[in-house]
Amino acid sequence: MTVAQAASVGPSLTLLSEHEMIRQTAREFAQKEIAPIAGHHDETGEFPSATIQKMGALGLMGIEVPEEYGGAGLDTLAYVLALEEISKVDAAHGTIMSVNNSLFCHGLLKFGTEEQKRKFLVPVASGRTIGAYSLTEPMSGSDAATMKTRAVREGDHYVIQGRKSWVTSAPVAEFIVVFTTTDPAKGHRGITAFIIETNQPGFSRGKTEPKLGIRASATSEILFENYRCPVSNRLGEEGEGFKIAMTVLDAGRIGIAAQALGITEASLEASVSFAREREAFGQRIGEFQGIQWKIADMKARIEAARLLLYQAALAKTASRKTGQRFTLEASVAKLFASETAMFCSHEAVQIHGGLGYSKELPVERYFRDAKITEIYEGTSEIQRMVIARSVLGLR
Ligand code: CAA
Asked: Buried b vs exposed e over 294-331: b needs ≥16 C-beta within 10 Å?
């Protein structure tokens, strides 16, 4: 990758042809298919099944998964470029895509057995069905190791009881990677992961979350009452669940940074168009220094977020060969990109004034959608904790 002339708004890097191709594919799809429906799905909260199916057919739901397991066989940079383009038009589609790719497919690819990959990864990576990931519980969020959902082994099955919350795509997912405790006395070393088949008895869905933003993505609680999970559906060994959860979240956080970057770009583009057209006090508002400084701050932060994101993506691709963790790069990218999304969407509303506050324009949606990127897959405070521990050599 070489640094090229920066465009006034938009990517300032020259990409390899395969990367440019997937970015173009995602961009065209988002503009043609998602842009016309995004406002409606935000308003109604209706899950956008038709467009998600089409994204599956385009290979966008398992970008990094090898072709033999139903995916597109590309690298992490390809994934983030595509996710950025989708999220630029609609962050809710970005959430669904991100959870499917990073939280479900990445975990199955890295920790699944051959049989599990054939049975669960192939249909999800190829976009025929949807996968989800469930770590959080009503009383266990940032402190993830304190989960209470319990799995007890009985012969060739585990019996699972408990309640998980804030599960993205749970209302539509066929398979969910769920983290439970198999030995509460061991704390995080007693946590075990399972692949749950949602059509089996003992599984049900609880309340759906009425959310501030990313409203077209479906989020609900899930409940287990004597759910019998075959041992063959255990992901990894007993007690390995916490490390699996954290490893998968490293990948997920890169996805959220890409989603956040998409929101920043949409916010800047809308602001630039508006500042070029709108007149006040006898001139276009873009000619006022007050607006120019906002645009300049947005642009500078966006370009910094982009470099951090692409650096994290390259680190993740390199880890396929080296096996090295990319925890630090992922947390830095997520922290900076999500705070930039909040900053840029806030400035975009301000630049648009009353129109920015109106549902007539998508700018208020960018503002509502941006907030979740500072919360899910680890809050900004958790990212700062992870970064500081790494820099200080505490973990
Ligand atoms: N990769 C691999 N292993 C890791 C790791 C990583 N990134 N991070 C920690 N570990 C390992 C440690 O090495 C340690 O291993 P040992 O057992 O050998 O000691 C073990 O995990 C425990 O680590 P810590 O002592 O650091 O654990 P902690 O209890 O202090 O917690 C934490 C660390 C970073 C705060 C973690 O709990 C965390 O990330 N919390 C946030 C959870 C989160 O992001 N939740 C969002 C869920 S998904 C979601 O948002 C919903 C959705 O659908 C999108």
From this structure: bbeebbebbbebbebbbebbbbbbebeeeeeebbbbbb
Per-residue pLDDT reduced to its tens digit, 338-367: 999 999 999 999 999 999 999 999 999 999
Ligand 1 pocket, 137 CB below 6 A?
Answer: no
pLDDT score of 9 more than 50: no
Atom of ligand 1 nearest to the CA of 132: 53
> How many helices and strands, by DSSP H and E, does the chain display?
13, 12
- The sign of the dihedral angle between the CA atoms of 137, 142, 148, 150 is positive
**Residues with catalytic function:** 377
| 8-state DSSP, 382 | H
Q: Does 247 contact ligand 1 (Cβ within 6 A)?
A: yes
- Contacts of residue 353, defined as CB under 8 A and 6 or more positions apart, other chains included, come to none
| pLDDT score, position 8 | 38
Quick one: tokens of 264?
A: 């920043």
Identify the CA nearest to 258 among candidates 51, 29, 86: 86
pTM (2 decimals)? Answer: 0.96
Could you tell me where the beta strands, DSSP code E, fall in the chain? 2-3, 13-14, 131-134, 150-154, 157-168, 175-181, 191-197, 203-208, 219-230, 234-235, 279-280, 283-284
Give the residue ranges of DSSP H helices in 34-113. 35-44, 49-57, 76-89, 91-98, 107-111
